[in-house]
Amino acid sequence: MLLTLALYARDRAARGLDPGYGSALAAADHFLQAWQAGDAESGTALLSSRAKEKATPEALDQFFTADAPAKARAYAVGRGKMLKGGRYEFPVMLIGGASQSGHARRRFSSIILVNTGHNDWAVDKLP
To answer: Which residue from 13, 31, 63, 98 puts its CA 20 to 30 A from 108's CA?
Structure first.
């Protein structure tokens, strides 16, 4: 009985997962790794053309270098949801810097990725 339930759950989960989900999540993770490392060049390369048009160079520099040194940064990505038009939105928590009380600062946001074709994904909205 237990084996049957496990197989049912695995089969049901596999049918419900869009094939692009994993690729979109991986692209979000790569972008956030660039943020964590303070690597604006690698992070900018993962932006969609629309996101590059909307963000000024100063805003991108601020995003990748603000808050804390790269070694003091961390992030968490939540379960994403499919939006229309080949897009996914993932909730994120960015952790960096320290508040006056000495605790790490947390910022809650979301990141949107868009399928640019051939299962390639790009960040369309910065967290």
So the answer is: 13
